[in-house]
Amino acid sequence: TRKAAQKMLFAATDFKDNENFKYDLVDILRQSIADKGNLLSSQISEAYERKDMERFKILADSFLMAIQCQDKLLATHRDFRVGTWTEQAKSLSANEANEKLYEWNARTLITVWGNKAASEKGGLHDYSNREWNGILGDLYYQRWKLFFENKIREMSGEKVDPIDFFRMEENWTYDTKAYNSRSEGDVLKVGQEVYNTVIGSF
Question: CA-to-CA distance for 166 and 181, rounded, in angstroms?
């Protein structure tokens, strides 16, 4: 996907007004960042196994930066924003009480899916997860950051308690932060920026 992303960016100025091209550009860059994340994840695991804390920290920081870059990229297109999902859910109701319920359902479907038993014992945790702006920055980033911090403490010899990820995710489903569907930023400019920052270093 890295070469495909590179070629699409090269042709981007010729199609800067084509909405279908913009969607495809965001999507291919999104996938390329995810591929870089998979590579980093493997390298992070290796550093952890070797107890190489300094390398672990460097790689973990790169992984977290990739999430932030992906979140910024996805903000440039409404179809990759969690606000589009939650706004659609709320629009199905004419009264405020049901709007809140529908939004909670929409948030739950892309995170814990149900209660703790369904999520963890039933295998439904992250069953319908999405790489969307908003949930990346506010949930996935925080989740990974806490995970890495715990691993660093563990490598330092500290005793750490298991992380209650379900509680983090459930809290997000009840959060009242408003997400919108408006595109933010120039997809061509941001796309080139994230390519240079994350993808180009493959």
Answer: 26
Tokens in use for 190? 């941001």
- One-letter identity of residue 195: Y
Is the pTM higher than 0.85?
A: yes
Q: 81-109 b/e with 16+ CB inside 10 Å = b?
A: bbbbbbbebbeeeeeeeebeebbeebbbb
Burial class of residue 69, CB neighbours in 10 A (0-12, 13-18, 19+): buried
Q: Helices marked H in the chain — which ranges?
A: 2-11, 19-49, 53-74, 82-90, 96-109, 116, 135, 141-155, 165-174, 187-197
Distance CA 96, CA 178 (A): 14
Q: Which among 34, 65, 61 is positioned nearest to 47, based on CA atoms?
A: 61
Please state, in angstroms and rounded to a whole number, the distance separating the CA atoms of residues 104 and 86. Answer: 9
How many residues does the structure list for the chain? Answer: 202
The pLDDT of residue 16 is above 90: no
Going by pLDDT thresholds of 50, 70 and 90, the confidence category of residue 183 is very high
Q: Can you give the pLDDT at residue 202?
A: 61
Report whether 67 contacts 144 (CB < 8 A). yes
Closest CA to 167 of 159, 179, 175: 175
SS (H, E, C) 120-143: HHCCCCCCCCCCCECHHHHHHHHH
Cα angle 64, 29, 172 (rounded to 5 degrees) comes to 45
